[in-house]
Amino acid sequence: METLAPTSTCHHATLRIATEGPTRFVDLTDELDALVAAAGIRVGFVNVQTLHTTTAIVVNELEPLLHVDFATVLEHTAPREFPYQHDDMSIRTVNLTPDERINGHAHCRALFLGTAVCLNLVEGKLQLGRWQRVFLVELDGPRLREISIVVLGDGRR
Prior knowledge:
With 157 residues, the protein is an alpha+beta fold. The protein has helices at 29-39, 64-77, 104-110, and strands at 8-18, 24-27, 43-50, 55-61, 116-122, 125-126, 132-138, 144-154.
């Protein structure tokens, strides 16, 4: 059996997504599949990272009622109407912007979710289970969001 030296290659892309509501699960899987195909990686990894503190990246199932359940769990975990110190502009002194949002709940919800996922690529495809999909979780929308994606691996086909 002949062993060939790997031809390592790396690709980066940024997805810009306009979310449509306060809590949403945006399926990124098809966009990731297209980026992986364009990168020509046979075996490697794709890392998907959100660039925002009130979003998350998760792997789960594309089932609408399950997404309602997820949003309900998040609401119970960090209720929107709870008095967050982050939202009290009379005491808060850092990271303030002119268009500051009342979003302590979204930051607290993000604490329980991840900012990134790293997925295996085999034979040029994402290795996902039967029902698995990759989601951007919007916790403070609607907003324009950016996702950083790195595809790294053996570029030989």
